[in-house]
Design goal:
three-stranded antiparallel sheet; Rossmann fold; five-stranded parallel sheet; alpha/beta; binds zinc ion
Length: about 220
């Protein structure tokens, strides 16, 4: 199956996407990886992408689409799970055209969503996380009772601190920005009867099983 994956930004997306790609037996294509490959290989597209990224301007639809065109290169992929793209309705229309030219239209678009109260809970949980001063990979997950929150890393005993950009308001605003990008893309596919929305609550395997069941009727 050829599936576009839309995700909210507030949970461990990679684990869900990886489990889903495996359950669908579809290669997981991540836009970020495609772009990094152009940057590493110093291609013309990579140079243009780097210039934009350094300028802080929004990533242009035209470059994003060119990266996808370069990837599919007129072949018809039998199966894929595409994440991180499209990021606008212009990109979505360009992707529709590209896949149509390849004779390989999308079978569906999966939107992994969380209920509002779960989004709020994860925002607060993420903001309450501490990092170890000794090693940034030692994350501290706070217990449900905030009074019981520890001050030392459970891995190495190092002092814990909170990053400034882990502030609740910062995380909430980052989340809203991401939603504002994804929602119009979701509507684009809903209008074409391609959208399947699934609750992303549970383990990655549970989410993947629910998603596969929901996508079942779309197999080509
Ligand atoms: Zn530590």
């Amino acid at each position: 199956m050829r599936i576009v994956l839309l995700q909210q930004s507030i949970y461990e997306q990679k684990a869900d996407a990886a489990a889903l790609a495996q359950a669908l037996a579809a290669p997981h294509i991540r836009f970020g990886d495609l772009m990094r490959s152009h940057l590493v290989r110093r291609t013309g597209l990579g140079a243009r992408a780097a210039a934009v990224m350094n300028s802080g301007e929004p990533f242009p639809d035209e470059i994003a689409t060119a990266i996808l065109r370069d990837t599919f290169d007129s072949t018809a992929p039998a199966a894929f799970l595409l994440g991180g793209h499209p990021r606008s309705t212009t990109q979505a229309r360009a992707l529709d055209d590209l896949l149509h030219e390849c004779g390989a239209p999308l079978d569906g678009v999966l939107y992994l969503r969380l209920p509002e109260d779960e989004v709020e809970r994860r925002i607060r949980q993420q903001a309450a996380r501490r990092l170890c001063r000794n090693d940034l990979t030692h994350r501290y997950e706070p217990p449900a009772d905030p009074l019981a929150a520890g001050r030392h890393c459970t891995v190495c005993g190092g002092e814990l601190y909170q990053r400034k950009d882990d502030d609740e308001d910062v995380i909430r605003s980052r989340y809203r920005t991401h939603e504002a990008i994804v929602e119009p893309v979701a509507r684009h596919y809903a209008d074409r009867s391609l959208l399947t929305a699934v609750e992303a609550v549970g383990t990655p395997d549970e989410v993947a099983a629910r998603a596969v069941a929901a996508l079942g009727g779309r197999a080509s």
